[in-house]
Every structure is written in structure tokens, then in C-alpha cells.
Design the sequence.
């Protein structure tokens, strides 16, 4: 197996759009870690995570011949992944949650890593109780770092609607977790209301 080149490889994307099976495979391989990370953040660790990942990649493969390259392929992949995640909201059963790889600092002591893992598990349980649209708003803006305008484009809505969903999501999460000792150090930053 040969190493996959970075996603920004214009030649490979052009060949994938033209239908070259090797380029399609390599492009999907390059997108896989991103799609998986986005789905973990949107759905949590669920039994359907692998199915959702496969469905998103299948939709991306079907989309590639129609990709006009007016935006980055990453943006289109993110939008498709959000649409797939919507289909899985409410269908998932909770499993023990492992941390998203970049959240806890690997150099941190074991107590800090355990605390981070427990905080993430509690936040995911809280996110599962949010309505789907508010959950997407919170994940895209507070966790992924998108602006409400960028998140609105990914979710297929207006920036005003995204801002409203984000405000309501933050209020609901704050109410559910206001006395949670595990989330005390992360919650204030994620719940800041001054998002552009």
C-alpha cells in the first residue's frame, strides 16, 4: 500500500472528479480521518459510527463526479458528513465514550487525562439530549471552531438561524451542566456567547 498524499493535491482531486478509481480511493482515504472526527464529535462513540462513516464516504464517492471545485473538497465533505449525521440522530444507543484524540494532552498526567475523558463523556451525554439542529450548531461552532456563518453553510441554513440555535444550545448545556465538576475548566470557554 502506498502512502496517501495530502488532501490538497489538485491533480488527484481532478483525476477523482474525472472518475479515476485510484484517485477516488486515495481521495476518500485522505478524507477518512476528517469524516471520522466530524462524526465522532456529532454522534459520539455509538454502534452506528462505522455505518455513518461508511455512508458519508459512499456519498462523497457519489458526489465526486459532480464536484465543480468552486470550494475546497474538505468543505463539501464536511457538509455531506453533517447531512449524514442528521440521519443518525436519535437512532444511536450510548456506549462508553473514548476521547477524541486531540483533546487530552498526551504529556498530561494520568489524572488530567482521566478527567478530560470523563468531561468529554459527560458533554457527549448532554449533547445527545439536545435537539439535532442545536447539537449541530454547538458542535460546529463551539467544538469545531466554525463561525456561525460557516456552520450555517455546512448545515444548509441561514447564519441567523445558526446563531439562534447556538445560543439556545449553549443555554441548555449550561443549565444541564452548571454544577458539573468535571466540566468546570472547559465549560466557560465553550459556552461563551460572543461568537461572531
Sequence:
Amino acid at each position: 500500500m502506498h502512502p496517501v498524499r495530502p488532501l490538497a493535491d489538485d491533480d488527484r482531486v481532478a483525476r477523482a472528479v474525472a472518475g479515476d478509481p485510484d484517485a477516488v480511493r486515495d481521495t476518500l482515504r485522505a478524507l477518512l480521518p476528517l469524516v471520522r472526527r466530524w462524526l465522532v464529535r456529532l454522534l459520539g462513540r455509538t454502534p452506528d459510527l462505522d455505518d455513518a462513516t461508511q455512508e458519508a464516504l459512499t456519498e462523497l464517492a457519489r458526489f465526486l463526479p459532480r464536484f465543480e471545485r468552486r470550494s475546497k473538497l474538505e468543505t463539501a465533505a464536511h457538509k455531506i458528513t453533517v447531512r449524514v449525521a442528521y440521519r443518525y440522530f436519535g437512532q444511536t444507543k450510548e456506549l462508553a465514550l473514548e476521547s477524541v484524540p486531540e483533546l487530552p494532552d498526551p504529556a498530561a498526567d494520568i489524572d488530567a487525562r482521566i478527567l478530560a475523558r470523563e468531561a468529554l463523556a459527560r458533554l457527549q451525554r448532554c449533547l445527545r439530549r439536545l435537539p439535532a439542529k442545536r447539537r449541530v450548531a454547538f458542535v460546529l461552532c463551539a467544538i469545531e471552531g466554525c463561525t456561525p456563518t460557516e456552520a450555517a453553510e455546512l448545515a444548509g441554513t441561514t447564519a441567523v438561524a445558526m446563531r439562534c440555535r447556538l445560543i439556545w444550545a449553549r443555554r441548555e448545556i449550561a443549565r444541564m451542566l452548571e454544577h458539573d465538576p468535571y466540566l468546570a475548566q472547559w465549560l466557560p470557554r465553550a459556552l461563551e456567547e460572543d461568537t461572531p
Q: What stands out?
A: Residues 140 and 150 are 9 Å apart (CA to CA). The chain is about 65% helix and 0% strand. Residues 21-43 form the longest helix (23 residues).
